[in-house]
Fold each of these.
Amino acid sequence: LVNIARAMGLDVDPDLTPGRYGLYESEARRRAWWDIWWWDAYTSTLSSRAPLIPLHAFSTRLPLDVDEEVFTSACTSAPLLSPTGKEGVGRWFGMRVRLAQLVKDINFRTSLLSSLEHPSVLLSLEHASQCEAEIKQWLLDLPPAFRMGNEGMGEESCIPPHSSMTLSSNASHGGTPPTLLAQRLDILMTTHRLAMGLYLPSLRPHSSLSSDSHYNVKHETSPQTHQARVGALTAAHGLLRSGRHFVELVCARPDLVRRKDGLGLSLCCGLVCDVHSGILFSSPFSL
C-alpha cells in the first residue's frame, strides 16, 4: 500500500506541481497520504517494528481542518472549522495524525538510545524525563475540545470519577458528545502508554548481569530504579483508568467508537506493570 501511494505521487505535496490539481483533489490526496502514514505508524508501534515510511521522507503537508459537510469539489476556498466551532471528522483526522507524529518521533529517539550497546540508567532516565515533559506539553497545547479536565500525565483529575462516567445511548458526559469523549480517551490512552514505555528500559537489568544477585539487589534499591518505577507505575495507572472508561463507552455506544486494535495490548501492558510493581514494592528489596 505504501509503494502504491508513492507510485501515485501521494508523498509529494500537490502544491509542488502548480495547476495540476484543484483545491478539493489536493486536499483529498493529502488526506489519503496521511491516512496511510497514520496506519503505518500505528501498526509499526503495535508490532514493535520500524515504520515503512521514515520521518521526513515525504513533502506532503497536513490536510486542512475543513467542514466535511460543506466541502465539495465545487468549493473555490476551503471551509475551515473555527477553533471554537463544531467538531468533525476533519479536526479529529488532523489530531490523530499529530498524535501519531508525537509517538513516532519519541519512538525514533528511543530506538536510537536503545541502539547503544550499554546505555546508562542515568541516560535512559534523562531521556524518559525529557520525553515525558514533551508529552505533558503536547497535552497542554491541545485545542480545548480535546482536553480532558486538568490534563496531565498521571493526574487523578484527568479522568472523571467512575460514578459520573455512566453513559446511555442518548446521553453524554457533562454535555460532551460521546464521539468527542472517545477521542479524548484515545489521546489519553496513547500518551499514557507512550510515557510508560519510556521508563520500562530503566527497570530491566542488563542481560549479562541478570544472574548477578548482588547487582540485582543494588539495581532494585537504587534511586534511579525507584524513579523509573514511579514513572512507569503512574503512567500505567492513567492507562488503566482511561482504558476502563473507554470500555464503558464502547459498551454504551459501540456505533460511535472506532475499532481499537491496540486496546487489549495497552491495558495488558498497564496491568502487568502494576502487578510487577506491586510485587517489587512488597519485596525486601523495595524502597
Amino acid sequence: GTLTHIVALLTDRGMPLKEAVSTLSGVGVALILGRVLSGWCLDRVNGVGVAIVFFLMPMIGIALLASNLRGAAPFIGAVLCGIGVGAEVDLMAFFVGRYFGLRAYGRIYGVMFAAFALANGIGPSIAGWSFDRFHSYRPAFAIFEAMLALTCLLLAPLGHYPYPARKQAAETPMQTASV
C-alpha cells in the first residue's frame, strides 16, 4: 500500500509533482534491482538471512517515508521499499521449494501467491483509509511495519532446508572437451 500512494504522500508534503513522479520511477528500477539481487543472494547465502535483510529494507524505507524528512530521505525510503517488493515473489517461490519440496509446489505456491495478491490488494485500501480517517499515512505505515517485523520473526527460527538444491553432476570429460 505504501508505493501505491507514494506520489500522493510526497506531493501532500509539498514535493513538486515532477519530483514525486521521478521518485516513483526510481521505485520501478528498485523493483527490478530487488528481484535480481535477491536471486543472486539466494544462490550464494542462506535464504533466511537474505529474506530478513530484504524485509528489513522496506521497514527502513517506510520509517523514512513516515519521518517527514526532506532531501534524499523520501527517495531512499521509496527505493528501499521497491527493493523489498521486488524480492517478495522470488523469496516466496524459493522458500516454497526449499521447505515444501516439489510434490505439491504448485498448490502451495498458488495458495501463498493468492494470499500475497490479496494483501497487495488490501494494502492500498488500508493506506487510503488511514489518510482519509487520520489525515496521515502513519497508522497504515505502523501496520505495514508490524507485518514486516512479524514476517522477520517468523522467518528467523527456520532451520536448514528440508529440500536443498540438488548438486549438479560433475562434468564428464566428453562435456568438457565439447566446450
